Amino acid sequence: MKKSIMILAVVALALSSCNKTEGTATVTETATAETTPGGQETVKDDDSAPDIVKLAVSNPDLSTLVKAVQAAGLATSLSNAGPFTVFAPTNEAFSKLPAGVLDDLMKPENADKLNDILSHHTYVGVIKTDQLTDGQNLGMVDGKPISIKMVDGKPVVNGTINILASVPASNGIVHVVDSVILPD
Hints:
signal; Fasciclin domain-containing protein; Adhesion/Biosynth-related; seven-stranded mixed sheet; FAS1_dom_sf; FAS1 domain; FAS1_domain
């Protein structure tokens, strides 16, 4: 009921402030948005900076991560406002896992386990590489910390995982990493 009243109010406002043609377009756009299945990750927007999920989808080196995020049911969460810092393993990073582990994690019955692992790659807030310091611990979404060590002036995660690139997104930042960060 409240949703219907809100939609009617928006339509009435649009019709009262625009000419008839523009008002009709607004009604059509509103109706389309209401019937589109999926969450925030399904919104088409080619003008704004991409969110974390759209950024990952656009990078072929992160296709395994995208499949894992979808299998774990995290695409909507990582498309929302954030801000988030995501340590994104490359396809090559996933290939370093023991044989069969990734296939097992991608099974529907292991979605919770996969969610836990991916949550260990996500920090709530934006941390750029120049804000990472030696000995720093970051509390990840799964409740467990990762540690930062400076090696040759560059931050390394948990002593061995290198940040290959950092890309800002509309809802945070993505640090592309060369290994999967497994919780203890």
